[in-house]
Amino acid sequence: MANATAAARSDMDVSDEVMIQMQGVHKWFGQFHVLKNIDLTVHKGERIVLCGPSGSGKSTLIRCINRLEEHQRGRIIVDNVELTHDLKNIEQVRREVGMVFQHFNLFPHLTVLENLTLAPIWVRKMPRAEAEKLARQYLERVRIPEQADKYPGQLSGGQQQRVAIARSLCMNPKVMLFDEPTSALDPEMIKEVLDVMIELARSGMTMICVTHEMGFARTVANRVIFMDGGEIIEANDPERFFNNPQSDRTKLFLSQILH
Amino acid sequence: MAEAMQHYKPGEHPDLPPPRESVGPIAWVRQNLLSSPLNAALTIGSLYLLYLVLPPFLDWAIFSANWQEGTSRADCVKDGACWTMVRARFGQFIYGFYPQDERWRVNVAFLLFFVPVAALLIERVPGKRYFAIFLFAIYPVIAYILFYGGLGLQEVPTARWGGLMLTLILGAVGIVVSLPIGIVLALGRRSALPVISLICTGFIEFVRAVPLITVLFMASVMLPLFLPVGVTFDKLLRAMVGIALFGAAYMAEVVRGGLQAIPRGQYEGAMALGLNYWKMTGLIILPQALRIVIPGIVNTFIGLFKDTTLVLIIGLFELLGIVQAAARDANWIGLSREGFVFAALVFFIFCFGMSRYSQYLERRLHTGHKR
After folding, report:
1. Residue-wise pLDDT tens digits, B238-261
2. pLDDT of the residue at A257
3. Do A100 and A110 contact (CB within 8 A), yes or no?
4. Which of A170, B101, B235, B291 has the highest CB neighbour number within 10 Å of its CB?
5. A253 at B interface, C-beta within 8 A
């Protein structure tokens, strides 16, 4: 199906190479069954938007991909590395998968530049000078090169989120996960973050975004996935997903968010 | 009353200075000392109390005091404090029973300690790494040789150490050793591995449930009973170990408070970047946690520094002990007040210094994230 979608949207290319594979994934929080039999294959270059009502398990799903949450059944394979209890595998996957959080999670005791260079220096063993050069390039790309020496607490929410995106990009990840990146932002700052994400999508990055920004989904997604009650209810290209939803639950959800 | 406010068109209103009655010393006095009839009464009452207490004390301690040199109580002819005793005993208050001819070694050792410490504490001084390496790797060896002897220096057994010198050695060792052990205990207590968590929690709870005097007693009286015949530890060393471990247990709880204040997102942000546990802890979590608990850490330091006076109980004469001993000397009998005031002043200088430095550190490390 991913290939068919890609053909429909020739402006962005999706390769045959499988990036993430989830097979029959289940997860429980105590007694609560949050993820039920999730099957998902993400190809290199795909831009996937995950949506659904709160508590539907969409955040948990992407947090399983870099093992911030542990799945209890099924298999998750990221870039040919299976996530198990093996710490080596987990660290390897995390090096290749960037994540942007709702609340940014920048390190408040480090300057913007230090936030960006920390992982390249300590995880990738990159020389400091090279890491700083790279960091400045990415700050340029998210359009805040002048904030390099400030602390996160001195920036606006939108600027902080762009720093967070740049911080992930500095690790040169193969996949980017976005967990409601604009939900904690003031309305006038949402666009500056979305613009950066759109540009990133156009550059061919494989992305999975949990978001309620349906405009974003229409613009860049090649697949929109609707989740409810821990299950994937529907997955389709944005055109068909928005204009011709198949299930009643999807229709209800869309009618609620697209007033 | 303020003059009538001028009207401006919307968008053209300039920034005006605040009203005159809200700034300046008179406003300060009015707001802080005389804000209500009750506060005014409290201010006047406090001033009256100070009037009752301060002049007699200053008269005793300074204006009518004996500052001259002398050899016994009879040399104190004026009514006030007999600082003559402190002058005569000063060497002993500082060095204890350390041999007179060897005291230069103590001075050198403290000079070699305070210069690099000052270099570390003052932000402007460059080359902090070298000072730190010197202090933590090289200095302990130098200090041991200077204080104790060896390499041609005459041996001075620890029983002859005393006074301020002993207080500072006990305090410095306690502070330097208790912080890292406390951090390890705090991390261990929060460990996901039940055995490690249990051991750390058990140690912390046991030590905190026992008074320091008991720990010192056990270290000096009971420990030798359990050791094989012929194996002895120096009494001072035992006291040091006791004080350091005692301080570490309190430090661990202070640090744990800081660790608990770090939001989950910081762990997740660090993990998502691929940092392993130790890098995450060392680079992200601890720097923030320790910064939050600077007041608590310094509080524990100050408490530990003052607790060193308890080694008197196992026969070590630190500053307070030697001051008390001086008051029992036949030549100076009954002059305990002067000695205590002197000891209090010395303790105050060190403790207040630590307190001020911690406030300075808090301000300097503030990066605007607590808006």
Report:
1. 888 889 999 999 999 999 999 999
2. 84
3. no
4. A170
5. no
The amino acid that residue A62 corresponds to is I
pLDDT score, position A235? 94
Q: How far apart are CA A77 and CA A64, in angstroms?
A: 11
Closest alpha carbon within chain A to B283: A118
Q: Is A103 in contact with B265 (Cβ distance < 8 A)?
A: yes
3-class DSSP assignment, residue A41: strand
Chain B 240-279, CB below 8 Å of chain A: which residues?
A: 265-266, 268-276, 279
Candidates B90, B103, B135; CA nearest to B345 is B90
Using the Cβ of B328 and the Cβ atoms of chain A, whether some distance falls under 8 Å is answered with no
pLDDT tens digits, A246-255:
999 999 999 9
- Which residues, including other chains, have CB under 8 Å from residue A24's CB and lie 6 or more apart? A37, A38, A39, A73, A74, A75
pTM of the model: 0.85
CB contacts, 8 Å: A123 with chain B: 273-275, 279
Whole-complex ipTM: 0.91
Q: What is the rounded distance in angstroms from the CA atom of residue B93 to the CA atom of residue B322?
A: 6
Distance CA(B256)–CA(A173), nearest Å, equals 34
Q: Inter-chain contact B265–A105, Cβ cutoff 8 Å?
A: yes
The residues, any chain, with a CB within 8 Å of residue B181's CB and separated by 6 or more, are B244, B245, B248, B251, B252
Structure letter (DSSP) for residue A32: E
Tokens describing residue A212: 């309620």
